[in-house]
Specification:
With about 260 residues, the protein is of the alpha/beta class. The chain is built from 9 helices and 14 strands. The longest helix has 15 residues.
């Protein structure tokens, strides 16, 4: 059984620690800042065995150099991203045995936020960086709207009980946008309440299930009549495909 903990960094980032229950070994996901990682490792007397990188933005890789000065561990990341000290360049659909103690990890190709963005699926837990957020999705940098839409469709094919571990605490703001798009969606209203309770207790709103995203995230609901209607009303246009709806939603959210 895995235990997963969030290591807060910067203003709203989460670095993820993955452990097997009862072991001090730890896999580190997206260490944008070395300091909180080192403090947590030393406080808990952990032994790092690998670093996983979803994409090359500084708030996900900025701590790698410093960590490797202290810990001799491999760094896994996309062959299509600029990742410092990368030792294991990855392609989509690879199956990794990072350490014999840990379950097999599958690499998913989910570009859009960046051109080479990947995710790591381990024992029903998806570490997806900045592609999918709670009730939202990443902005588009070196990727395209079409790529990001397809990436979310890839994630949507996973089992609904899959737990999503994204890298930023954006859920409350995203839910405000979602509620504007679908004001009659009762599950969005309930999620707003549930998320507020967690945040008032200084707890992360992450992880969440894929099933919850499919019910409350407008970017994953581009075929729903309520989302189509709101988006077409906003743009003043008839939008022909779910991809067109997604692109219009992403532009709208960028200005929200």
């Amino acid at each position: 059984m895995l235990t997963i903990q969030a290591i807060p960094a910067f203003k709203d980032n989460y670095i993820w620690f993955i452990q097997v229950k009862g072991s001090q070994k730890v896999i580190i996901v997206d260490p944008g800042d070395a300091e909180p990682v080192i403090k947590a490792i030393e406080r808990q007397k952990l032994t790092p065995v690998a670093v996983l990188i979803t994409h090359g933005h500084h708030d996900h890789v900025g701590g790698v150099d410093e960590l490797l000065k202290r810990y001799d561990v491999p760094v896994y990341g996309s062959k299509n991203e600029l990742v410092p000290c990368l030792t294991h360049p990855l392609s989509a659909c690879e199956n990794l045995v990072i350490d014999p103690l840990f379950p097999m990890t599958k690499v998913l190709d989910i570009p859009g936020h960046t051109q080479g963005h990947i995710a790591f699926l381990m024992d029903g837990n998806l570490f997806c960086g900045d592609t999918l957020f709670g009730a939202g999705c990443g902005r588009i940098f070196s990727g395209t709207a079409t790529l990001l839409f397809k990436a979310l469709q890839t994630i949507a094919q996973l089992p609904k009980e899959t737990l999503i571990y994204c890298a930023h605490e954006y859920t409350e703001n995203n839910l405000r946008f979602a509620a504007m798009i679908e004001p009659d969606n009762a599950e969005i209203q309930q999620r707003i309440k549930d998320t507020a309770v967690l945040r008032q207790q200084a707890k992360p709103s992450i992880p969440f299930t894929l099933g919850l995203e499919l019910a409350t995230n407008p970017f994953m609901r581009c075929e729903q009549r309520s989302v189509i209607s709101s988006t077409e009303k906003h743009t003043g246009q008839v939008l022909a495909t779910p991809n067109d709806i997604f692109r219009a939603l992403r532009i709208w959210k960028d200005r929200f």
